[in-house]
TrEMBL record:
<feature type="domain" description="Brix">
    <location>
        <begin position="83"/>
        <end position="267"/>
    </location>
</feature>
<dbReference type="GO" id="GO:0032040">
    <property type="term" value="C:small-subunit processome"/>
</dbReference>
<dbReference type="Pfam" id="PF04427">
    <property type="entry name" value="Brix"/>
</dbReference>
<protein>
    <submittedName>
        <fullName>Ribosomal RNA processing Brix domain protein</fullName>
    </submittedName>
</protein>
<dbReference type="GO" id="GO:0006364">
    <property type="term" value="P:rRNA processing"/>
</dbReference>
<dbReference type="GO" id="GO:0034457">
    <property type="term" value="C:Mpp10 complex"/>
</dbReference>
<dbReference type="GO" id="GO:0030515">
    <property type="term" value="F:snoRNA binding"/>
</dbReference>
<dbReference type="GO" id="GO:0042134">
    <property type="term" value="F:rRNA primary transcript binding"/>
</dbReference>
<dbReference type="GO" id="GO:0005654">
    <property type="term" value="C:nucleoplasm"/>
</dbReference>
<dbReference type="GO" id="GO:0042274">
    <property type="term" value="P:ribosomal small subunit biogenesis"/>
</dbReference>
<dbReference type="InterPro" id="IPR007109">
    <property type="entry name" value="Brix"/>
</dbReference>
<dbReference type="InterPro" id="IPR044281">
    <property type="entry name" value="IMP4/RPF1"/>
</dbReference>
Length: 292
């Protein structure tokens, strides 16, 4: 099994390395197609390759003409089955961290909570792969306060690292309206993820949730403001007329601050870093990483 995972990872990295070459080939074919459609001469730099490229163009259809990206490979099967998530903690978690993780299992449908014990991360990831989990969520703490959450997509990544701020659990939230949590698949609201890294982050977050039914009254919100992502969990119901809606907070609530995305799983220290927060990034107050 270990050798098979290593081989599959190498194949994945090879596909990723070809992405740039495939993009260049796609652009060459696009220029030839455009020239033929507009009745213009083939660009001079492509005339030596015209015969071979036109032969490939004749064999392509709408699906094969556009090259796949790394993200397509990572989430290629996302629409075929619902997410299956394992949530665990650092070793020897405190009572507050256990409570927070317990509430996260109510937030994410089809998730399971695992007491980590003495298991190392590579063992956990290997077990998740063998049991068809799609994601691992790993929560850490400092002196009983949850401070970091890591979301690792299986089998090959990506892995997103977030700082946790202002965590308020359902247990601690005196203003919570409901005592029970609906298990219906929630509608998802993703607000202000407008940059390239923002779209990447939204893509990682949205694939943690299955497709809901249209009549679901449960809502999960990730709203970005100045690169702090606010998480909220609500249910709604109609009260009175058809345009009158009553919104109730379920909890928990917290802020996420992205600081790294890695092209690999959480146990792969050698995996390439796709993006990482640097101190100099924050020198300009106007520059936003995730959204405007």
């Amino acid at each position: 099994m270990l050798q098979r995972n290593i081989r599959l990872r190498r194949e994945y990295l090879y596909r990723k390395s070809l992405e740039g070459k495939e993009r260049q080939l796609y652009e060459k074919k696009r220029k030839i197609k455009q020239a033929l459609q507009e009745g213009k001469p083939i660009p001079t730099e492509l005339r030596n390759e015209e015969a071979a490229l036109r032969q490939e163009i004749d064999l392509e259809d709408d699906k094969t003409a556009v090259p796949k990206s790394t993200i397509d490979d990572e989430y290629a099967n996302a629409n075929e089955r619902d997410p299956k998530i394992l949530i665990t903690t650092s070793i020897n978690p405190s009572g507050p961290l256990k409570q927070f993780v317990k509430e996260l299992t109510l937030v994410f449908p089809n998730s399971e909570r695992m007491n980590r014990g003495g298991q190392v991360m590579s063992e956990i990831v290997a077990s998740c792969r063998s049991h068809d989990f799609t994601d691992v969520i790993f929560v850490q703490e400092v002196r009983g306060i949850p401070t970091r959450i890591i979301i690792s997509h299986l089998p090959f990544g990506p892995t997103a690292y977030f700082h946790l701020h202002d965590v308020v659990t359902r247990h601690d939230n005196k203003d919570k309206e409901l005592k029970t949590v609906s298990q219906a698949y929630p509608h998802l609201i993703l607000n202000n993820f407008s940059t390239k890294i923002g779209e990447r982050t939204a893509n990682i977050l949205k694939h943690l949730f299955p497709v809901p039914k249209p009549d679901t009254k449960r809502i999960i919100t990730f709203a970005n403001d100045a690169d702090y992502i606010s998480f909220r969990h609500h249910v709604y119901r109609q009260s009175g007329g058809p345009k009158s809606v009553e919104l109730k907070e379920v909890g928990p609530r917290f802020l996420l601050r992205l600081y790294k995305i890695k092209l690999g799983t959480i146990d792969q220290d050698e995996a390439q870093v796709e993006w990482e927060f640097r101190n100099f990034i924050n020198t300009s107050k106007k520059q936003k990483v995730i959204g405007e």
